[in-house]
Design goal:
This protein has seven helices and twelve strands.
Length: 304
């Protein structure tokens, strides 16, 4: 059973609907321990979630007259410690909706030894379930089930790339018929992503996901560049050369190996300046062009 938590009208446009839906049926969340720990929601300059206990998707649907049939699941970043939920989530969804693409923000669980078993699998577990859930509702939401992509930011980019390379890795036991559907994304956009768990990783993301002394096996398994194969989806990567938090080498690794191994299209766009975590970059004349570059690339996939 799927539980609808909220239904509101966005931005004065009565046809753009926002739904918040539990990813998992009640009491069937995999790898979850029973504790008294509660989710934390904090707003300073951005809306942040931490200690997520009940993962959800927030669904933004375009007006039927504008809908392209495409959808994108959005994975906000935050080093696997928090989710920058509006900065790299709902703001992106609203842009996509304006261009006829359903935007679906994933509030995924963050790795926690206190609340989870095998915490390193938990974000991927939620990501696989989220895309399957969207496919299960595709007819209802006027979405083409063969045109569902991902966009992930920083650690959310790591999660998106993990889903894109390990979509068929059995990391949880099926709970209902939704889990019989494919978890493979049809395309991916990775924004200043954490890719490697090796030398050029973002240490905070690695520590939160794998612990401070991960085994060589875990480092390899969760280095997305090392998991690329011929079926890895078409991928567009965007990074800034001066990113001090997540070195641009992360995107370069993925791009190089994607082009060497995958049968799908790969592209890398590097800004000379921009730093890390620029989100929609609405106040930067140069960086704010990236969403339009992404739209052009997504549209170009139709000609392949």
């Amino acid at each position: 059973m799927i539980f609808v938590l909220a239904l509101t009208v966005l931005g004065g446009c009565a046809a753009n609907k926002e739904l918040v839906i539990d990813i998992w049926p009640k009491d069937k969340i995999p790898n979850q321990l029973k504790t008294d720990i509660e989710e934390v929601q904090e707003y300073t300059d951005i809306l942040k979630f931490s200690r997520v206990q009940k993962p959800t998707i927030e669904v933004f649907l375009p007006h039927a007259s504008k809908a392209t049939g495409k959808a994108m699941l959005i994975f906000p970043g935050g080093g696997y410690g928090i989710l920058a939920y509006d900065w790299e989530g709902t703001s992106v969804a609203k842009f996509l909706v304006d261009h006829g693409i359903a935007g679906i923000v994933v509030k995924y669980r963050l790795p926690s030894d206190e609340t989870q078993i095998d915490k390193h699998y938990v974000p991927l577990i939620d990501a696989q379930r989220a895309i399957r859930l969207v496919r299960s509702r595709s007819k209802e939401w006027n979405i083409d089930p063969a045109n569902i992509g991902l966009i992930g930011f920083s650690a959310g980019g790591h999660l998106a790339s993990t889903l894109g390379t390990q979509y068929d890795n059995m990391v949880y036991t099926a709970v209902d018929k939704v889990d019989s559907l494919s978890a493979r994304p049809d395309f991916m956009v990775l924004m200043y992503p954490v890719i490697t768990m090796g030398e050029n990783t973002h240490k905070g993301s690695r520590n939160n996901l794998l612990g401070k002394n991960p085994s060589a096996e875990k480092v390899m398994q969760f280095s997305s560049d090392l998991q690329i194969n011929e079926d890895t989806p078409a991928t567009y990567l965007i990074h800034a050369m001066d990113d001090k938090a997540v070195p641009v080498a992360n995107s370069e690794y993925f791009f190089a190996l994607h082009n060497a191994k995958s049968n799908e299209r790969g592209q890398l766009y590097i800004f000379e300046e921009g730093g890390h975590g620029f989100g929609m970059a609405e106040d930067n004349e140069i960086l704010r062009k990236w969403p339009l570059l992404v739209l052009d690339w997504i549209n170009s996939l139709e000609t392949d």
